[in-house]
Design a protein that fits this description.
binds zinc ion, 18 strands, Rossmann fold, 12 helices, 2 domains
């Protein structure tokens, strides 16, 4: 194996990234070395690429290899690695827990207080090879193609968000037509939802939502969201809100349209503090709110892996673009063009 590899590296505290030659990572005793087969672009990568305010405050190490979603083959294991073997086909939970804090010790490692994130706090996987801590390595079934195995991390967000309580027979309203909203549509469908409504702003993506099993597509720019939902539920409101958007508008509408005693899963991240009708939206309604961050380790992963392995969930409509790694700039522009013309963009080193 050569000592050098190609990687997409954030080389400057500024917009963009570069494809450069860097050393193949040297693994630590608790890490494994992976040959990356496929790696997908996430909204987080776009923030880092665009170097927005969040990225400026969050990214400490420059230069740093970008990326956190991948699937690949293990080439080498560290001396303390016990479960992962050379030749295993893995992806990774991207939240690296400390396994020492109160959260980690009580089954909440996904919100570890010392959490490190792959490609955010350390070198990532937009490269030919990546060093991955064994604790976050997830062994894939070889029947799952790399482009699907690489998107399990965001798919896991959707699985956790949607199935934190059963959706069987329920009215489910999804805000946001980004990849996690589209995945959530498919998950709600296989979870047996009665009716799935999705609110989005991009016809290209609402079209994908249809393929993923949405019953009612609502274009927020042209349709009357409130009227459609209230007519469909005889004025009662929906049982479940999956907020994958986190905008002020989604939050206002979500707490208005959730029925009394319903559930609100909050996954979308707001760009700043928001205001909402707390009394009427939550207290008097008896609404249950779940904050959804990451994926449950590893409850979520077992669920999503089986959905893929046994072909219960077809995510192919969401994976819209496959490009060689060197065309990453095209990938990022596909992710940022408006109106949106992509779902998930997967890169192949
Ligand atoms: Zn991601
Ligand atoms: Zn911890």
């Amino acid at each position: 194996m050569s000592e050098k590899m190609k990687a997409i590296v954030k080389t400057k505290r500024d917009v963009g990234a570069e494809l450069v030659e860097v050393d193949v990572p040297k693994i630590k005793p608790d890490q494994v070395l992976v040959k990356v087969r496929a790696t997908s672009i996430c909204g987080t990568d776009v923030h880092i690429y665009e170097w927005n305010e969040w990225a400026q405050g969050r990214i400490k190490n420059i230069p740093q290899t970008m990326g956190h979603e991948f699937a690949g083959e293990v080439l080498e294991v560290g001396s303390q690695v016990t479960k992962i073997k050379v030749g295993d086909y893995i992806s990774a939970e991207t939240h690296i827990p400390c396994m020492d804090c109160i959260q980690c010790l009580t089954g909440q490692a996904h919100i570890c207080r010392n959490l490190k994130i792959l490609g955010v706090d350390c070198d990532g996987c937009f490269a030919e090879y990546a060093a991955i801590p064994e604790i976050v390595a997830w062994k894939n079934d070889k029947a799952i193609p790399p482009e699907f195995a690489s998107v399990q991390e965001p798919l896991g967000n959707a699985v956790y968000c949607t199935l934190v309580e059963p959706v069987t027979g329920k009215h489910v309203l999804i805000f946001g037509d980004g990849p996690t909203g589209l995945f959530a549509t498919g998950v709600a469908r296989v979870g047996g939802a009665g009716q799935i409504y999705i609110v989005g702003r991009h016809p290209f993506r609402l079209d994908i939502a249809k393929k993923m099993g949405a019953d009612v597509l609502i274009n927020d720019k042209t349709d009357d969201v409130e009227k459609i939902i209230m007519d469909a539920t005889s004025g009662v409101g929906v049982d479940v809100i999956l907020d994958m958007a986190g905008t002020q508008r989604a939050i206002d509408l979500g707490f208005k349209l959730v029925r009394k005693g319903g559930r609100y899963s909050a996954f979308g991240v707001a760009s700043g503090p928001v205001q909402w009708d707390y009394n009427n939206g939550v207290v008097f309604k008896g609404v249950t709110i779940y904050g959804i961050n990451g994926r449950l380790m590893y409850d979520t992963w077992f669920k999503l892996a089986n959905l893929l392995r046994y072909k219960k969930l077809d995510i192919s409509p969401v994976v819209t673009h496959k490009l060689p790694l060197k065309d990453f700039e095209k990938g990022f522009s596909l992710m940022t063009t408006r109106p949106k013309v992509s779902g998930k963009v997967v890169l192949f080193p």
